[in-house]
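Fold sample X.
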Amino acid sequence: MEEVSRESIGLLRKPSLDASPPGLSSVGAVFILLKSALGAGLLNFSWAFSQAGGITPALIMELVSLVFLITGLVILGYAASVSGQSTYQGVVRVLCGPAIGKLCEICFIVDMFMISVAFLKVVGDQMEKCNGSVSTVPQPWYTDQRFTMSILCVFIIFPLSAPREIIVCSAPLMLAGVSVFLFIKHLVSSIYRPSSWLAVFNVFPTICFGFQCHEASVSIYCSMYNQNLSHWTIVSVASMLACCLIYSLTGLYGFLTFGDNVSADVLMSYPGSDITVIVARFLFGVSIVTVYPITLLLGRSVIQDFWLSCSNVWGCGECVDPSETWVRVLLTGLWVATTLLLALFVPDIGEVIKVIGGISAFFIFIFPGEHLLLQRLCLIFWGVVSILVGAFIFGQSTSSAILDLL
C-alpha cells in the first residue's frame, strides 16, 4: 500500500456507502489505484527477473498474473455493489460469513505489519549503503544502522504515526527520480535461462507485493460517482496495464544492467558514492518514511475494530475502549518497535517480500475467489481456479521464505 495521499486515506477509512456522496472521477480512480500499487515494489522487480530465470519467463508469469489481478479487481467491485460495504474486510464479512471475515482481518493486519517491516528494511538498507561510503575506518558509532534507524523511528516515524488521523502527502518525485536514475545507466545485455522450470514461480511473491492495491480497491470503487461495473472494469484494466508497464521496464533495465548479480533491492547494486544514486536513495527514503504512518494507520484501525468486535462477542462491553488516546499511542509504539526489531535482524528484504507475497495472495486470489463460489457455475469455476492459484502462491512463497531462513 504505497504512495497513498491524503485523498486516498479518506477513501480507505470511509465507513459506509452512504457516509458521503461519491464524487471520484475515473481518472482519479485510475491514479489512486496506480499509486496504491507503485512504491517499494519498484526496487524488487529486477531481482524477481533474476529469480525467475530471465526476462522471458518473468514477463510470461507477469502477463498470466495480470489476468487474475484485473479479474480480482472487477470481482471486488461487483462484490462491493452487492454487499453494500465500502471496505475490503466488510465485503468479505458480509458475503463470506463472520469466520472468513475474521480471517480477512487477521490477514490484513499481518499484511500491513509485514509491509511496515519491508519499508523499514528498505530505508535501513539505503542508509547503510550511504554510510558505507564514509572512508573512516572504523566507522563512527553514529553511522551504525541500529542507531540511525532507532533515531529515525523515535523522532520522525513515531510522531507521524501516533495521531488519530494521518495527514501526510508522500513525495511525488520519488517515481520520477528512480525512473530517471535507472534509465540513464549503461545497459549490459545478457541472456539467462532458468536453472529449473520451477524457478519461474519465484516471481509470484514480487508480483503480489508490487501489484497489491486490492485492499484499497473496494473503497475506491465506492467513492466513484460512476459505479457501473463495465466502467470499473475499464478503470481496473487501465491501472493494471500502466502498473505492469512501469514495473516491467524497471525490472527489465535493472536486470539487463546487473544480470543474476542484482540485489533484492536494486538500489543496493549501485555504488554508494554516486551522486545520482544518493539522490535516488534520498527520494525513495522520504517516500517510504511518509507512507509508513499510513500503513500503520490502516493496520491499527483494523486492530481496534477487531478488538471492539471481540469485546462485544465475549460480553466484555466494559473493557477498555480501543479508541482511547493511550491505547492508540501504545499500539503505535508496539507496532513501530516490533517492525524495527524485525527490520534490523532480517538478513534480506527478499525474505520479507516472499512472506508479503504469500499473504497478498489471499487478497488478490483467494478472497475474490470465495465471492464467486456463491455465483453461477461458470463463475464458480473461475472462483475455484483463483482460490487454487492463490493457495499455491501462498504455500510456495511462505515455504520458500521459511526454507531460506533455516
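Fold sample Y, listed below.
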Amino acid sequence: MSVPRTHQVGPTTVWEWPGRPPDTLLLHGIGNYGRYWDFFAETIAGRLRLLAPDARGHGDSDKPARGYAPQNFVGDVLAIIDALTSERPLVVGHSMGGFHATALTLARPDRVRALVLVDVGPRIEEAGDSRARRLSLGRPERFADDASALAYLRETSPGYNDAVYANRMRWVFMREGDTLVWRSSKTALAKILDESRMHASEVWARLGEIRCPVLVVRGTRSPSLSEATARGMIVSLPHARLVELDAGHNVALDRPRELAEEVMRFVSELR
C-alpha cells in the first residue's frame, strides 16, 4: 500500500494519495480519521487523486473547545479545496462526512463537481443513531495495553479482518505514558452529535436543491440508512442514482473494492 503524504491546512491534517483527476475529497464519519480510507485508496491505486482530512476534533487535526457546527466543517473543507485543488472536486462523504458534504454542496454548489453519499441520509434509523452515540460517548477513556484496546474494538465492531483492526489500532489510538487513549476528543464528538441533530432538518430539507450528479451508496446490512430512505433520496435529487452493497454502515471497511469500483464507474459517467 502506498504511503500518503500529509498537508496541514489551517487546523486540519490532510492525507494525500497522488493520482489522476478529478481531485476527490474523502470525508470520514464521526469518531474516525482520514486513514480510514486506506483500503479504498489501495483499490483506487492512483486512478484518482485522493485527499482525506482528519476532521476537526479527530485524528491529528486540532480539537478546539468549540466550533463543531456544520458550517465549521464546511469552512474547513473549503479551505482544503482552495489550498490543495485546482478544480471542483468530487466529494465522497461517509455518515457524518456525508452530512457535511451535503451542507458544503448546498452552501457552495460552485465548488463541488459531484457528490457521493455513503450510508447517510435525511433519516437515520434509531438503531444506527443509538449505536453512534454509544460508541462515541460511552467508550472507556483509556486502555492499559494494546490487548485490551484491541479486545474493545473487536467487541464493539465485530466481523472485520486483521488488517482493518490493525489500521484502527494505528489510527484510532495514541500513546499517553503507558496507556492508550483516543485520538478523537469525546468532548468534540458530543458537540458534533448535538450540532448535527440541531441542524439536520434544515440541511436535509434542501436536498432537492442539489443539481450536481449524486451517487447514493447504502450498506444493505447497515442499521443507519433504510432502503426506503435511500430510495426517497433518489426521488428528491434530480441527478442521482442508488447503489446497494452487501455491507454494514462502514462500507469502506466492509467492501472497499466494491465501493472503489462504484465510485470509478460514477466518475466515468462524469467524463
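Sample Y note: The longest strand covers residues 12-17.
Also: Residues 208 and 237 are 5 Å apart (CA to CA).
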